[in-house]
Specification:
346 residues; alpha/beta; TIM Barrel; eight-stranded parallel sheet; binds D-glucose; binds magnesium ion
Length: 346
């Protein structure tokens, strides 16, 4: 039997969010980066994931020199704290230049802005000793189908990724698909799409993916199948575990909160594929509920990690021989019940 994976955990500064939603203001006061880093350490996490402007706030108004200087300063703080930077992602959805999309904007100047900003993101990654760049393609899609040419947009996406691959030969890009929100429909909704796009780029080996549980659920898929699929290609380079109660707004609930069995199957898929053995991190892209009090601010992260660890035990103690006997007998009825009882601890 191969040695069991000792998982390492991660979250981002945005996962300690302040409670605002489209219908109401924050319910918790903003906290400093130092406070967030300390919470992460105290809760036993190993790495932090970043947006470019989590590392360098107000990035669009700073020179390249200033950007690198500030990124190095953050790099030093992380090193001193013994915390790794797992990924950096360009936040391509806030700027006035990305109102109509970033790499797929209809405006050439805006497409160029998106590429230039992403190159800076790679530079920030370098300063943090991190070569994994995540592309959550937030606005690469449309509200009105006829407003964009989807075939052209595919070419734009490939051109943009090629420009990033050329900018730094060591950079690796993980595409994080999501089928909708903020857009009506997105151009890269699933892992199959992400990996197909990877194949069109100039260096497919350096283009992989990141699965987020909620995004797969929003696409009507089982995240565990997305994990198996991506890992069949050796392409799952990061993961955002969380949960989602059906086809609603992106909820980013604690891992396992809506459907424990779907969570269990994700853990089983990670285990059987050896996720983490090449240094990949388990990241939780979860948010506190709006009702969460300041003194409970870390609970969604601590609880997600705890649920994950309990489900790892559940995956390891699952009686595979018993399951295989039921499968051989095509007794899926009792297999179903066995899974339920195993999860209920009886
Ligand atoms: C939103 C995404 C978002 C990304 C993050 C990193 O739906 O899940 O949180 O994961 O921006 O790219
Ligand atoms: Mg995510």
């Amino acid at each position: 039997m191969p040695a069991a994976t000792a998982y390492r955990y991660c979250f981002g500064p945005w996962n300690l969010s302040e409670g605002q939603d489209p219908y109401g203001p924050p319910t918790r006061p903003p906290q400093t980066f130092g406070w967030k880093l300390q919470q992460l350490k105290e809760a036993g996490f190993d790495a932090m994931m970043f947006h470019d402007d989590d590392v360098v706030p107000d990035i669009d108004n700073k020179s390249e020199i200033q950007i690198i200087k500030e990124a190095r300063e953050t790099g030093k703080r992380l090193k001193d704290a013994g915390v790794v930077a797992e990924i950096v992602a360009p936040r391509l959805w806030f700027s006035p230049m990305t109102i109509d999309g970033a790499y797929t904007s209809n405006d050439k100047k805006c497409r160029q802005y998106a590429i230039d900003r992403s190159k800076r993101c790679i530079d920030i990654g370098k300063a943090l000793n991190c070569n994994l760049i995540v592309l959550w393609l937030a606005r690469e899609g449309s509200y009105i189908r006829e407003s964009k040419n989807a075939r052209k947009c595919l070419d734009y996406l490939v051109e943009a990724i090629d420009a990033l691959l050329a900018h730094d030969k060591k950079a690796r890009i993980a595409i994080e698909p999501k089928p909708n929100e903020p857009m009506d429909l997105a151009y890269i909704p699933t892992i199959g799409h992400a990996l197909a796009v990877a194949n069109l780029t100039s260096d497919p080996k350096r283009v992989g993916c990141l699965i987020e549980s909620a995004h797969a659920i929003l696409a009507g898929l089982d995240p565990a199948d997305e994990i198996d699929f991506a890992m069949g290609f050796g392409k799952l380079w990061s993961i955002h575990l969380n949960d989602q109660n059906g086809l609603k707004f992106d909820q980013d609930k604690p891992f396992g909160s809506a459907n424990l069995r779907v969570a269990f199957n994700q853990v089983r898929a990670l285990e059987r594929n050896g996720y983490g053995k090449k240094g990949e991190y388990v990241a939780f892209d979860v948010h506190p509920f709006r009702t969460t009090k300041v003194e409970h601010w870390m609970r969604h992260l601590v609880n997600s990690k705890r649920t994950f660890e309990i489900l790892v035990e559940k995956a390891r103690s699952f009686d595979e021989a018993k399951a295989q006997a039921l499968i051989a007998d095509r007794n899926y009825q009792d297999l179903d019940q066995y899974v339920l009882e195993h999860l209920m601890g009886v």
